[in-house]
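Appendix B, record 7
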Amino acid sequence: MAASDTPVIDRLPDAFHEWLNGRVLDEVECIIPDLAGIARGKAMPANKFFRQDKMYLPISLFFQTITGEYAHFERDDYWTEADMVLVPDYQAATAVPWTGDVTLQVIHDIQTLDGEPHPLAPRNVLKRVLELYTKRGWSPVIAPEMEFYLTKPNPDPDMPIEPPVGRTGRSGVSRQAYSMSAVDEYGVVIDHIYDFAEAQGFELDTIIQEGGAGQIEINLQHGDPLTLADQVFLLKRTIREAALRHECYATFMAKPMQNEPGSAMHIHQSVVDSDGNNIFSDDAGEATPLFYSFLAGQQVHLPSVVCILAPYVNSYRRFVAGESAPVNLEWGLDNRAAGLRIPNSGAAARRIENRVVGMDSNPYLAIAASLACGYLGMVNALEPTPAMSASAHERMESRTLPWDLSSALDLFEAAPEIVSVLGEEFCDVFKIIKRFEIDEFQQVISPWERQHLLLNV
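Structure tokens (predicted):
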């Protein structure tokens, strides 16, 4: 029997069938990630989903800023509200374990009406980059690390964000990195994260207390970039739902609290050949020229895609000298002060950790952009700077990361090689959206301005 002739319910992953356990499926959520990484789509009764021939969404959902406003484009064809075709990826289907009904969520790819991959869809941007690797006989392997904060509910955005109250009845106020007691403080939330992740078939690697008050890090198993991007996309929603079960928020904002460190999504990257061998190591276990070229590609091209890795005005508050986030793209062996770290490992696991990426980024776009930089380094045989063994945190004179989103967009607009890899139409829309968001932000008067300028100037 051909795959297309197999009943849809039988084409769903084993993890879903284990969770379903003979129950009747009530509802299906058909979702896609937008440019911000927000899940958008439509929900319907399960019996309607299984009868459905084609589903559509309007192209304009890719024109919304993070505030929900629509950016303005000069192209008339964008404002006809033309349909895009949703194509379900049944291997990217999981349970929705926090709902009252028995619910399935299915990530969909997006095509044009002509059946071509839509260039604005973040999932297609990542697939475009992966196809470049495939044509060379390469397959990237990644492992993301997700940092986020648990906080008290914050219904009034004019009020500062505060750490949550834990099981002791006290709010977290100190930095207790790797403290098991700190993890236990929010154990009921973490238990629900584990339970929800297991129901969706996600294998979490480790959970630790990070450096901020109420800050958690979840590491995922290494694997295929598209699969891992799907997991990060779904886990953000999962973690938020687990937190809400216990009257707290989970935030993936890059810098939610003034005196606490920011939240990153470090990406470990390696590349294997068609036989599964790591091309970053030779037969003698030494680093290969391709390893150094991938590393150089990160150094040369990452500044041009920082607007994707750090996509909001708040993102740049994370890049502070002396804190845990990098301010430049030095590299070093087991050097967490560098923007590019080479972790301790055997030859087979040699990899490069990109520590620039913020947790507020769209995982599909961030992974695509990071891998694009490495790809350009390898195909152009670039050479990196010498390794740094000392701390890179204080080297502000060698800062290679832009100071703000506007400067980052200037670099993005002046990077034709990056545009050719990610796609011209996507890059045009992305930069217009971000410029529009900057204009929106510039209209906001901050508490700092009211406090220090109202009566003093």
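Remarks on this record: The chain has a mean pLDDT of 92. The chain has twelve helices and 13 strands.
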